[in-house]
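Teaching note: in complex prediction, the entire set of molecules is handled at once rather than each chain in isolation. The prompt given to students was simply: 'Predict the structure of this complex.' The entities are:
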Amino acid sequence: MAVMTMREALNQALREELQRDENVFLMGEEVAAYQGAYKVSKGLLEEFGDKRVIDTPITELGFAGLGVGAAMVGLRPVVEFMTFNFSILATDQIINSAAKMLYMSGGQYKIPIVFRGPNGSAFQVSSQHSQAMESWYSYFPGVKVVMPSTPADAKGLLKSAIRDDDPVIFLEQERMYGNKGEVPEDEDFTIPLGVADIKREGKDATIVARSLMVPVALKAAEELEKQGVSCEVVDPRTIRPLDIETIISSVKKTNRVVIAEESHPFCGVGAEICAQITERAFDYLDAPVKRVSGADVPMPYAKNLEKLAIPDVETIIKAVREVAYLD
Amino acid sequence: MATQVVMPKLSPTMEEGQISRWLKNEGDKVSMGEPLAEIDTDKATMEMQALSNGVLRKILIKEGESAPLGQPIAVIGEADEDISQFLSQASAGSAKSQAASQPQAEKKAESTAATQEASTEPARASQPSGNGAQGAGREAQANDRLVVSPLAARMAAEAGINLRSLTGSGPGGRIIKRDIEAAMSTGGGQQAVEQGSAQAPQRHLRAVQPGTQPAQPAQLEGASPYRDEPTSVMRQTIARRLVTSIGPVPHFFLTTEIEMDRVVEMRRSVNELDPELKISINDVIVKVAAAALIQHPQVNASFQDRNVRYYERADIGVAVAIEDGLITPVIRAADQKPLSQIASEVRELAERARSRKLLPEEYTGATFSISNLGMLGIDEFTAVINPPEAAILAVGAVTPKAVVRDGQVVVRQMMRVTMSCDHRVIDGATGARFLQTFKRLLENPLLMIV
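The expected output is the structure of the full assembly:
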C-alpha cells in the first residue's frame, strides 16, 4: 500500500486502465496538454499520445455525444467534465442517448462509457459552479452513479467503472482531490459497484454519508464517541445501484439515522434513502430519519455564507444528538 | 400553537390524579421537560413535566382537585395566542363526565352489566363503566393520542407492555426505546400483560411475523409453526371479561366437602312423585345457594369502586358450556322460586343458550354464579369470578367416598365445592360462614321448608 492523494489515485486508475485495454481513451477539456484542470490526467498524454488522450473544444454536448457514439462502436471512452456543473449542457446525450441506448436498441448497443469529474462545492466558485448533481443522474434508470470518498475507493471504483459495460457517472469532489489515504497498488485491485462500505462501526446511530460528507461524518463520529454516542458511518459509495441492504442492517442495529449530504435536500438522494429506510425498517426506527443537507439556496459566493450552506461536523453532531434524544 | 396539558398516566394502575401543587403559575414561561406540577396518584406524589414550550396560559384543574387520565388540566401556548377553543372544550368535557356520573349511582345492576356486555369496545381500565362516561372517555382518548416511535411500539408489543402505562421521554412525550427498556427493567411488562389492552397488538404481531419470514422447509427447530384463526365475538368477550376479572379482582378460594346423600335421596323421591319435574342435583344447588345468599348478603354483593352494592334478590348465573364457549344464563330471584320452577327455567335457558337464542338481559346481571363440572367427572376446581359479581361457586362431581362417621368408616355421596371470592368485598371468614350455611342446607335439605 502506498499513501497518495485522491488525484493521484484517480490518475493511477486511469493509467492502469489505459494500459490494460487499448479501447480505453480519455477526452475532455484541458485533459491532455494542460494535464487536466485538477491534474488528474497528469502525464497521460505523454505516455499514451494524442490518439488516446484528447483535448476537446468547450462543447460538452458535442464531446459527450462523440463519446456515446464511440462507445456504440466498441470503444470505452472516459469523458471528463471540468466540473459536473458543465455536464448540465450534456444531459441530452447522457440521459437520452447513453442511458437509453441499450434498452431502445433491444440490447444491441451497450454503452461502456464513464463520465467523470468534480461534483459539488469547491472554494468560492459561487452558485453556478458549486452544484451537487447526483440526484439528477441517479433519477434515471440506465446509468450507474458512483461517489468515492477515499483515494482507495476512488481508484478501485474508477477501474470498475471503466470496465463496466453500462454508462457510469463518476462523481469526484474538488475539495477532496488533495485528501490522502492508503491505496493498494495491485493492478487487479477493483471495488465492485453497488457495494456500500462501513467506514466506522457503531451502535447508537447510523450516519449515511457519501463523498465530501464521509470525512466530515467520521470527524463528527469521533467527537460523538467522546460524548458517549457510538456512531456507525455507512458510505454507500455507489448511489445507483444503491446497497440499501447494508444501510438497512445498520439501521436495524442502531435504530437511528442521520443522512448527511452536500446536495440540496429537496428530491435529493437523502430523500430516497430515507424513503427506503421507512419502507423497509419502519419498525426498527426509534426516531424520525434526519437529513443534514446543503442549504436549500443557490450556493452563496461570500466565504462565511458558503461555509454555512455546507453541512459540517457541528451540524452532523447536532443531528445525531437529536435522533439519539440527547438534547 | 397552543397545546392542552392532559392528566398523564404516572403509575401503571393510575386512573385519576389529584393536583397536589402547581409548580408554575398562569403566565409563567415553561419549557419542555420542566416540572409543571406535582400530582398525587394512587401510589405516590409524582412530578409532571411540561411536554411543550410556551407560557402556562390557563390552569383548568386547581390544587386539590382531581381529574381522570387524559382530561385537560392546563393550556400551554404563546403569550398572546387565542386559547378560547381549548377553554370551551375543557368545560364541555368536564360537564359531560359530571352528568354521566350522576345517574350511574342509581342505575340498576342489570342495565350497567348489559351495557358492558353489549359494547364491543375493549374494556379500558381508565374508563368508568356506564354509557355517558364511556363517551366522554373516548373524547379524552382522542386528545390523549399515543405518540410512540415505531421501534418502541414493536418492543412494547413483544414485551407485552401497555404503552398507555408509560410516559414518553421523547419530544412531545413520544415513547421511545429507552422508555420501553426502562419499563422492561422495572418489570412493567408482566403487569401490563394482565391488563389485556396489550393483547390485541401482541396477537397482531404474531400474525404478521410468519409472513415476513418465509416458511422454512423443515420446522423441527425454533418456535413451533402455528395457524391463526380469527376469534369469534363470543371468544373475545370471554377473554375480555375474564381478563378484567382475574387482573383487577383479588381472588381467594374456599373449599369444603359436602355430604350429598340426603339431597340425592330427596331428588330421587321428588322425581318419583312427578317424573315431569326432572329436578337435577344442580337445581338443588342453585336453590340452596340462593337461600344461603339471602342469609349472607355480604356474599350477594358487588364491589363498585367507591361503594359496595348489596343485592336484595339472589339472581344466580348458571354457567352453561356451549360449542366454542360458555355463557351464564341467569335464574332471577332463585331464592323466591320453587325448585320445580328453577329446574324448568334452567333447562329452558340452557337449551336456548346452546342454540344461541338468549337475549342479553337473560345472561347478564347475575348476583352470584355457579359453575358445575361434576357431570364431566371433575372432583374439584376453581372458577374465575364474573365481574361485577363478588363470588362464584365451582361445583365438583358427587361421588361415593369412604368417610368417618361416629368412628366408623362408611360410604357417603360426597361433593367438593370451591368458592372464588372477590376479596375487596368478601373476607375469609365471611366466605367461610356462607359456605357453612350452604353446606348445612345441602346436608339437611329439609331445613329449606322449615
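Point out the following to students. The interface with chain B takes residues 255, 282-287, 325 of chain A (CB under 8 Å). The domain at 197-323 of chain A is CATH 3.40.50.920 (Rossmann fold).
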